[in-house]
Amino acid sequence: MPNETRRIPVAVLLGGPSAEHDVSLVSGRAVAAALRREGHDVDGWLIGLDGSWWELPETALDRALPPTVFDDPASLGARAPRSAAEGVEVLAARDPRPVVFIALHGPFGEDGTIQAICEAAGLAYTGAGVAASAVGMDKSLFKRIAAGLGLPIVPWRDVSLAAYRADADAVVRDLAGFSRSLPDPRLIVKPARLGSSVGMRIVRHADDADEVAVALEEAFRFDDRALAEAYLDHPRELEMAVLGNGPDNLESHGPGEAIPGHEFYDYVAKYADGVSRTVGHADVEPGLRDRVHALAREAFLAIGGEGFARVDFLLSGRDLYLNEINTIPGFTPISLFPQACEADGLSFADACERIVSLAVERDARRRRPPLTRADLP
């Protein structure tokens, strides 16, 4: 990375008002530590579960601290809480302005909300823009785009909370009919706009109203729309890392592979020590590797991705399916985005710096002189 980029301060946002709050704490602290080691001036900003903004002292970014200590930021020496508007106002008033490294997972951080706030404040930020973030977070919208482009995806159905409350029997009948049309009648039910497998359940008998109700109610705890997808029996989970601001400078790394210790890659399987394992370089044949790289790039460009993303695939026998895109992937010790990069020689710190440099590059390209009345039609 050029020296001039290294001198730019970075504000890492972590936590967030999302069920993925604790995962974000791990990711954000890892990113902050890596950037500091490379000589960046890094500040940490905790976004609380209530949406409050706390500026953290350097000691609070110690990765050994358990997530629960952040429930009381004041005890860590964090500065008095601010609203989101006040927080970005503080960052925007600094000279030079920092690059905002968004290490927030789930709603608010990954769905275009914080991206819009940064845009309004004139702050450079990492990752995808407002529209791409919103589409990437919404699994149903992403699948519609992928299907329209002819990309391989598993069959799915949308279920809205409003429709389910209005006529639960009709929803059960629809899902039962959908499951009977599949080679395997089991379904995976999950929130449409969340990650880390939060709120996800297997439905083994879609004509069982009680079983469907349990799965949907769990998904509706986190979102007002749920997704019911065809179940694949123990597929291989392949994940690609993509970096770049467009087709001219796009790079892809991987695939890495997650090997779940549970029936599927649920929250515990992802984050509990020793339950699953991940490898940064999956053992796949060259032809399949080339196809995964091509599809990952196509998916990234399809949503207008910028900065970085992780693109996930399911391999069932010889059938490859595009599963989803994560515009703010995890940076935990077992996260496959940094592992896939490292397997190709791009270290954790190098990947973080590359993401910051892409944010600077995009911000410079987007900046335009303010309009005056003479510019109006």
Number of distinct beta strands: 13
Give me the secondary-structure category: alpha+beta
CATH topology of the largest domain: D-amino Acid Aminotransferase, Chain A, domain 1
The first-level CATH class of the largest domain is given as Alpha Beta
Query: Helix tally?
Result: 13
CATH architecture call of the largest domain: 2-Layer Sandwich
Order of helices and strands: HEHEEHEHHHEHHEEHEEEHEHEEHH
Proportion in β-strands: 15-25%
Q: Given the C-alpha coordinates, what overall shape results?
A: globular
Q: What's the Cα radius of gyration?
A: 21 Å
> What would you give as the CATH superfamily of the largest domain?
ATP-grasp fold, B domain
Q: What can be said about the biggest beta sheet?
A: 5 strands, antiparallel
